Amino acid sequence: MEISEPIVVVVLSGGRSSRMGGGDKCLLQLGGQQVLARIVDRLRPQVTEVIINANEDPLRFADFGLPVMADNIVGQAGPLAGVHAGLEWVKANATGVRYIATVPSDTPFFPADLVQSFLSEAGDYPAFLVASSSEGVHPVVGLWPVAMVPQIEAALRLGMRKVGAFTKEHGATEVFFAPALIGARVVDPFFNINRPEDLGYAAALLREAP
Q1: Nearest to 54 by CA among 95, 86, 7
Q2: CB neighbours (10 Å) of residue 84?
């Protein structure tokens, strides 16, 4: 896939996975491969660089050979802090990159043209976009201008933690993505794995797919 401009994607892996029983749900096996490995493989053709946002010991992701950066905001400040950390990483390490894309680490079936669809919709800089589907808005899946760092920092200082609240308050434009067809089933492209039964459902989808 041709990439229309340099872009970094941040895989947000900072959650506590409480509904899965704790630990890193993105490191669980799905169809013979870790969930995170599936996500990284799906992202590599779409972007110029993949980085991981995760707190605590980064060595648990060492096998992926990717940069791992923790939140700059202490206290498990949620995915908005992960977005902020990704933007700060780009400012320090990827001069000339205007945007980051964000994807959660538990969403294995997102579109294979996700990032390019965002860039095609971006129009005038700086565009601020979030994904939507027939199931609703998915604010953690988005395209974020690096120039938005001051607004995110201000929101975090005021105690904002939810990405959805921030995107709504700052007028993010929704980009609609159609349902995915996996085997014979129509699935929301942003289906995410929160509970053990979700992991089982995702595994069943992969078994049915050609």
Answers
A1: 86
A2: 23
- Domains and their CATH numbers in the chain: 8-208 (3.90.550.10)
How many Cα atoms within 13 Å fall on the side-chain side of residue 198? 20
Per residue, what are the HEC states of the chain?
A: CCCCCCCEEEEECCCCCHHHCCCCHHHCEECCEEHHHHHHHHHHHHCCEEEEECCCCHHHHHHHCCCEECCCCCCCCCHHHHHHHHHHHHHHHCCCCCEEEEEECCCCCCCCCHHHHHHHHHCCCCCCEEEEECCEEEEEEEEEEHHHHHHHHHHHHCCCCCHHHHHHHCCCEEEECCCEEECCEEECCCCCCCCHHHHHHHHHHHHHCC
Contact 138, 104 (CB under 8 A): no
Query: Distance between CA 22 and CA 120 in Å, rounded?
Result: 38
Note the pLDDT tens digit of each residue in 53-105: 999 999 999 999 999 999 988 766 789 999 999 999 999 999 999 999 999 99
- 43, HSE (Cβ side, Cα atoms, 13 Å): 27
For residue range 143-170, what is the model confidence (pLDDT) as tens digits?
A: 999 999 999 999 999 999 899 999 999 9
- Residue with token string 């990284």: 40
Q: What is the rounded distance in angstroms from the CA atom of residue 72 to the CA atom of residue 81?
A: 7
The structure's pTM equals: 0.94
